Amino acid sequence: AEFQALLAPIAKEMEAAQGKTRGRRSAEDNHYKAVAEAMGALSWVCYQPGAGLSLPPQHVEESYQGAEFYSNKVLMEYRQSDPRQVEWTKAVKAVFTELKAFTKKYFSTGIKWNESGVALSAFDGTAPAAGKKKAPPAAPPPPPPGYLQEKAQAGAKPKQPAEGMSAVFSELAKGDGVTAGLRKVTDDMKVKNRADRSGKVTASGPPASDRAPAPAAAKAARPAKTELQNNRKWAVENYRGDRNIVLEVSNPKHGVYLYNCEDCTVQIKGKVNAVSVDKCKRTGVLFDDVVAACEVVNSSGMQMQVTGKCASFQFDKCDGVQLFMSSESLAAEVLTAKCSEINVSTPGASADDEPIEHALPEQFVSRFTNGKFITEPVCHSAG
């Protein structure tokens, strides 16, 4: 309860930032949403094992990824017209980059509390005062009479045995008695009769279990590229951390194929035949019009937004996908297979209304009715 009271001012500011994103839209709508998403990173101080939050560095990174989607919109809108807006997006990114580095260096596994410390309400931010020095103990009583004489006699050094060459000559002077302490060597103790000391070297070498494992070859990173293949398909592959990928397509018969991109933002300008995304992570894709379909497979943490018309969306083996549909694409089909956390945002009733978010079902129930199975999505209801 004390910790919650300490965090109350931060929580109040976070709630105020969320309040700016509600209601009627304004020219700064993307600014407000970017700040509201980014401020979620401040809750890293609440991390506890098993509480559902990611580790502090990862939590900060995930929160800023949500904010970066909106800050990129600000960047694209004002890149050519207002340099101050560009500097603002860079400043927001710098703040949370430093916060991630800070948590990674000092609190990578969360805050460690001092179990023997004072209560949070009693802590004033200063180090505890040093206690008064204790008085030295009283001198012990004198020893009893005769104790020192007995101690001196007990501590007298005994006669040391001879060392070095003098010890050798002393032993030789014993004559036959010099071998009296030696142990007799039997036949089974001789080296020539011991199987483990034969001296033979096997050609096979040490057993396989004793050999050091061969080091695994490091997987070479593939180069990033954007190219038109066979005059039919634009390939955008192997990009890492590039938030300013812009692809302008002038031929509507060309398709776009995104492969193995991570932490990127891709903007596709112009009408294209199809958009395909394969094996991408934490990447945002913004496109205009699509003739055939938009397909996403084997990907996670994706954000897909269409500003024009698209007839079909297909998601296969995907986790955590946010789809933003335009008013022209509301009649499109959305097909999912082996997916989880697929959310679709549709425009509000008017231009001033907030988008409405819909969660697509992940669980289904099948019932055998009238000689056939009827499959319906699972409906969870309270009560």
Automatic annotation (TrEMBL):
It comes from Tetraselmis chuii. One of its GO terms (molecular function) is actin binding. Gene3D superfamilies: 2.160.20.70, Adenylate cyclase-associated CAP, N-terminal domain. Residues 127-163, 188-227 are annotated as: Disordered. Residues 223-360 form the C-CAP/cofactor C-like domain. Residues 137-146 have a biased composition (Pro residues). One of its GO terms (cellular component) is cytoplasm. One of its GO terms (biological process) is actin filament organization. Residues 188-199 have a biased composition (Basic and acidic residues). This is C-CAP/cofactor C-like domain-containing protein. Residues 149-163, 203-223 have a biased composition (Low complexity). Pfam families: CAP_C, CAP_N. Transmembrane segments: none annotated. Belongs to the CAP family. PANTHER family: ADENYLYL CYCLASE-ASSOCIATED PROTEIN. SMART domains: CARP.
